[in-house]
Design a protein that fits this description.
With 289 residues, the protein is of the alpha+beta class. It is built from three helices and 18 strands.
């Protein structure tokens, strides 16, 4: 009976993957890094570009172009100006890594730059239909849109602004350069594995002052071990109920898991939920001079 249940479970998982159009993908990319950026930053850029190249090669791209004409009239006549907005988007999304990225780093003495080669392999799927238009902002030392930043200094306070036109659920993780993943949301004292989101409301997280339940709120002050330390935020949203990955308490009084375990959980969660979105935001943290 146990074997029969196992077979049924595996078949159901396979059907879920097939119905979601999940496929295995792989790609390589070589990035010639300017001399003024760190190796860690160069590796991050190379990794992002390798994944984007992989998605573009597999699913194609969409090129958007918008042209506008503005005519202004004044006493001396009229003035006509034209402007154009364009962009390219891939038609697929990266769900998670199957293996750890493989890096090879060499130094080009002729051009004075680091050459970062990366090979990636993971699971992806085509983007079907339109995504829910959500807004997520990393805020520094304030809770308004003008406080949005990607550069922090030691001692700066962290806040997050999140808005969705559809009610749903959110989890937030921070990944450091040591490949540790920390759960920032839901809060440590929360008895549920997610944060609920109301539709059309600007939610401010990590601030006791603007929270309806300040006794539950965790507040965060940024720190770093060296100048230019990179941290990546994973902001995970879905209109469908889900719960965070399993984690443990760390020495820093945060819930923690390995980045590999976070990737594994994300891959499974996104494979089962086509409406789940993962927003990645990278910040740098500098030492105070």
């Amino acid at each position: 009976m146990k074997r029969l249940l196992l077979i049924i479970t595996l078949l159901c998982s396979l059907e879920t993957l097939i119905s979601q159009g999940v496929i295995n993908v792989s790609s390589e990319y070589t990035y010639y890094a300017p001399s003024d950026i760190s190796i860690e930053e160069a590796k991050r850029i190379a990794l992002e570009r390798a994944r984007l190249k992989c998605l573009a090669d597999e699913f194609g791209t969409i090129v958007n172009q918008s042209n506008s004409t503005i005519i202004r009239s004044n006493a001396s006549g009229s003035e006509t100006s034209h402007f154009s907005l364009g962009g390219t988007e891939v038609k697929g999304e990266w769900l998670g890594d199957l293996k750890q990225p493989i890096y090879k780093i060499t130094y080009d003495e002729t051009n004075g730059c680091n050459i970062v080669y990366v090979k990636v392999s993971g699971k992806a799927r085509a983007i079907s239909g339109s995504k829910i238009d959500i807004s997520a902002r990393i805020l520094c030392n304030g809770v308004t849109a003008r406080h949005e930043r990607d550069l922090f200094y030691e001692g700066d306070q962290l806040f997050l602004s999140f808005m969705s036109p559809v009610a749903g659920y959110v989890c937030v993780y921070l990944v450091d350069e040591e490949a540790n993943a920390y759960c920032l949301l839901p809060y440590e004292l929360s008895s549920i594995g997610f944060a609920r989101i109301e539709a059309n409301r600007d939610h401010i997280f990590f601030s006791k002052q603007v929270s309806d339940t300040p006794e539950l709120v965790d507040e965060y002050v940024m720190s770093c071990s060296h100048d230019g330390e990179s941290n990546i935020f994973y902001i995970i949203y879905s209109p469908n109920k889900f719960t965070k990955a399993a984690d443990v308490s760390s020495f820093a009084s945060l819930r923690e898991l390995s980045f590999e375990d976070l990737q594994s959980w994300l891959l499974d969660a996104q494979s089962k939920d086509a409406e789940m979105q993962v927003i990645r935001r990278t910040i740098k943290i500098n030492k105070l001079k």
